[in-house]
# Entry
Amino acid sequence: MPTDYEDYTDADLVRCYQKSDEAAGNTLCQRYWDTLHRFFKKKIGNSEVAKDLVQETLLAALKTLKNGKDRSPRHFRSWCYKIAARVLVRWFQEQKKQGSYVSLEDVIADAGIADASEQILFSEVFLASVGDHPEHEIIDAELGGIRRRFEGTLRGRELKIFRLRLEGTLTFRQIGEVVGIKTGAAKVQYHRTVVAFKEWLKKHYPETYRLLMEGGD
# Structure
């Protein structure tokens, strides 16, 4: 008789899966499929591609469990969401290689800033606006909560430019007009803040940094 997993916690399902219970792994995937799909669709706007990214995320998550890399079954949800962010980074990178995605990197280059690719990918994925759709609150709370803690270290114009750009509705020229500086200065300030965020993340959330920036398994 099949096991009824309805009342199992994630930790229970992880333990069962690590004991070769494939049905428990399938239940974990079903539990997070819809939320992950909404997350990817929100970020890239394509439902079919989002499905592929969900599958890639869940397969990677199950692989870590099989390999015993997830040290605590209680942390499956958090680990799964971090993998989703890493998968999204890789998708953006692949689109850029194929020439089918226009990055903020081209805008930053106009300001004469070199070697911006890694930071821009980071901003496009991890710093994306959060909290505007309640159904995404699970994943956005994981990533956006960290972002908001970093924002607490910023002050004045630096914080204002950072937030205005992440809202995604204003150009750098418009942001410059709002804060009273030139377009190039707004670009440079935003870029410097993204770099600072990356260093802050590396110091305070090294595992998240590794997953997002270095593609660690």
Observations:
- Confidence is low (pLDDT under 50) at residues 102-120, 129-135.
- The chain is about 70% helix and 0% strand.
- The two ends are 36 Å apart (CA to CA).
- Residues 22-44 form the longest helix (23 residues).
